[in-house]
Specification:
The chain is mainly β. The chain is 6% helix and 39% strand.
Length: 187
């Protein structure tokens, strides 16, 4: 696998070495020793999967400390635009985001450390999205920020004249100025 740290400290793009032949393909999706060599130790304790239809936008979600989550995300069917926003107070990248297309074709993964809001927009007819987390879901700590927060300047690749499909929770998400987050950057 190829590990590339982005310009936001702690966020990594992981690209698989895919072995194709007449039967199909094979690749290693996760190898703990290699992961720790580049990123460091992360104890993943749960893996989640969601299936979403085209134009669904999930996010921007996070959990407050001490229940915040590091995530290793990938798409196993279809494609999404995946977005992570740095909410760590004191971070040189506070409020900045990374967006990357994750798909079953490119087999990329994105590692998002604790202290980030995360979301994705489905670009294909349907997408199956899977992610490992290092902390379980904690409903009382769950928070969100408006997906179209102007301060973030995220281009979600939403076709002109259309709107994404949002959950009721995401429709009610507050702007950044009203956001509730307690993350501190530790370099």
């Amino acid at each position: 696998m190829n590990y590339r740290e982005t310009d936001i400290p702690g966020v990594w793009i992981i690209e698989a070495n895919v072995f194709d032949d007449a039967r199909g393909y094979f690749f290693e999706a996760y190898k703990q020793a290699e992961f720790e060599k580049y990123i460091g130790p992360v104890c993943f304790m749960q893996e989640n999967e969601s299936c979403s239809l085209q134009s669904v936008l999930r996010g921007l979600h996070y959990q407050l400390n001490p229940f915040s989550q590091a995530k290793l995300v990938r798409v196993i069917q279809g494609s999404v635009l995946d977005v992570a926003v740095d909410l760590r107070k004191g971070s040189p990248a506070f409020g900045r985001h990374i967006s990357i297309e994750l798909s079953s074709e490119n087999k990329r993964q994105l590692f998002i450390p604790r202290g980030f809001a995360h979301g994705f927009h489905v670009l294909s007819e349907r997408a199956v999205f899977t992610y490992k987390v290092d902390n379980p879901y904690h409903p009382l700590s769950e928070r969100s920020i408006r997906y179209n927060e102007p301060a973030f300047g995220i281009d979600w690749k939403i076709p002109e004249g259309t709107s994404p499909t949002l959950s009721e929770k995401d429709k009610q998400a507050p702007p950044l100025a009203e956001g509730d987050f307690n993350f501190v950057y530790n370099n």
